[in-house]
Each structure stands twice: as C-alpha cells, then as structure tokens.
Amino acid sequence: MTDTNLIEIKNVNKIYDNGVVGLKDINLNVKKGEFIVIVGLSGAGKSTLLRSINRLHDVSSGDILIDGQSIQKATGKKLRRMRRDVAMIFQNFNLVKRASVRRNVLSGRVGYYGSFKSTLGLFKKSDVDLAVKSLQRVNLAEKFYDRADALSGGQQQRVAIARALMQEPKIMLADEPTASLDPATSTLVMDDLKSLNKDLGITVVANLHNEGLALKYGSRIIGLRAGELVFDKAVEQVSETDFDEIYGRTGQIKIKGGNK
Ligand SMILES: Nc1ncnc2c1ncn2[C@@H]1O[C@H](COP(=O)(O)OP(=O)(O)OP(=O)(O)O)[C@@H](O)[C@H]1O
C-alpha cells in the first residue's frame, strides 16, 4: 500500500431533483490498496456515495478526484477514460441474462472499443484471453459458454466480478454485493473481492448491511447516517457503539460474527 490518495471526496453534497438530501458535506480520502466498507441504515446515502465516485450521477457541489483528477469535471473521452479505472458491481448483478457468460464478461471491455465493434461483438483475441483469465480468477472458467440465467445467484455475481475485471480497474465499487445471496455464497463473493484487492492491488469500496462481513473483510469502516459521515475508522478501532449509533440501537442487539 502506498500513501497516495486514489479517491478524494471533497465537501460533497448531493441533493436530488425532488429535494431529498442524499449526501451532506462528505470529506473522505481513500488510499490505493484499501478495502473500505461503508455501513449505514437503508437510505443513509451509501449508494448515492458510490454512484458519485464513478459519476453515475453528478453531485450538487464539491468535487471528487480519482488519481488526482476531477471525475466531476471530466467530459467526453476523458470521462470515458476515467470510468475505465472505476468498475462497479451491483446487488442484482446486472447481467444480460439471456446472453452467454462469455458475452457478458467481454462486455466489460467495451470502454476500450468504439461502439461499432463492440455492438458486433468483434473482440480481439487478447480480450477473449483476458475474459478466460478473469473467469478463472473467480473459479468459473468452465461456465464460459453457459447462459447467464443458468447460473446460481452467487455464480452470477462472480461473473459480474469477472466482467468488472475486464476494465482492468484501479477501483472496484460494490453496492450491496451480497444482499441477494445466502451466507455461504456471500463469503465466496467477498473472498473474490478480497483476493482481487490483495493479489491485484485493486482498491475496493463496498456497501454492506452485514456487520460481520464488514468487520471480516474491511480494512477501514465508514459509517453514514442520513447522508452524513459519522465515523471513519480502521477496522481494529471500530466498536459496537459505532454500529449502535449508525443503526439507532439501544445496545440490546449484539454484533454476530465480527472480531469485536
Ligand atoms: N434517484 C433518486 N431520487 C430521489 N431521491 C433518491 C434517489 N436515489 C436515492 N434517493 C434518496 O436519497 C437517500 C439516500 O439513498 P441511498 O439509496 O443512497 O441510500 P442507501 O444507504 O444506499 O440505502 P439502501 O441500503 O436502501 O440501498 C434516500 O432518502 C433515498 O430515498
């Protein structure tokens, strides 16, 4: 891990068109190689924050820098180039269910192609090789020609991770990646995220509802409540009180499966 800030979030506010405040004056720096977990109640602003980092939506004020450059101010080619560095996976996997795993994984590479070639599926041999390698990384190489909807939920999420890897990203955003999965499958998906963090040096920012998973996988935990950052701590320093505060609990519910 180096000391370089890969993501800098500066005084960011997000107010939706209907007046709902999504984020309030968020300041946050993420260093290369960190595994950040964001926790908070439903509606706390976790997805809003993640979607601001890759500019799936604009923020209302403030700035977000990726590797020292403002993604908020970037346009055209520069924005597309910056977005390649920031991959994302979602709760519902977002695969094209009727297409093959091969096609889904290769679609992660479209940021490197003009629309003509990618629409026709004219991918280079080196990219097909990269697709095989990405699927091997999530232990699904044998599913290359299967249809996406023939796979289990956990397998679909791991195909989504392989697709994200096709971007050769510096950052992986994961929006509730395990919310649709059972506990055993959730662990497999989190293990894949951990391995690409450790082995490939990809910085991970994941929204998680599950406290046990947050404590097991995160190197740093960020707590959001009603759009505000209420704590930002190395995992070793996070206490049950921090979670109680985030979830508005009175202390009768205990953390299960964590290291506290
Ligand atoms: N497109 C939108 N238009 C208007 N308000 C929105 C929009 N998206 C989110 N919000 C509101 O912004 C606030 C933050 O929502 P967000 O989805 O970021 O929370 P979250 O912490 O990710 O919740 P969850 O865990 O349920 O996904 C909520 O009050 C939500 O209703």
Helix and strand topology:
Layout: E1 5-15, E2 21-31, E3 35-39, H1 46-53, E4 61-66, E5 69-70, H2 76-84, E6 86-90, H3 101-106, H4 115-120, H5 125-137, H6 153-165, E7 171-175, H7 183-200, E8 203-207, H8 211-217, E9 220-225, E10 228-234, H9 240-247
Parallel strand pairs: 3-8, 3-9, 6-7, 7-8
Antiparallel strand pairs: 1-2, 1-4, 4-5, 9-10
Q: Level of helix content?
A: 25-40%
- Overall tally of structural domains: 2
- Please tell me the overall pLDDT: 91
Major β-sheet strand ordering: 6-7-8-3-9-10
Pfam family, one: ABC_tran
GO molecular function, one term: ABC-type phosphonate transporter activity
Domain ABC transporter: 7-251
Keywords: ATP-binding, Cell membrane, Membrane, Nucleotide-binding, Phosphonate transport, Translocase, Transport
Please describe what this structure looks like:
The longest helix has 18 residues, at 183-200. Mean pLDDT is 91; it is low at 253-260. The protein is 34% helix and 24% strand. It has two domains: 12-85 and 171-260, P-loop containing nucleotide triphosphate hydrolases (Rossmann fold, 3-Layer(aba) Sandwich); 95-168, no CATH class. The strands form two sheets. A six-stranded mixed sheet has the order 6-7-8-3-9-10, sandwiched between helices. It is α/β, with parallel strands linked by helices. Adenosine-5'-triphosphate binds at residues 16, 18, 20, 22, 40, 42-48.
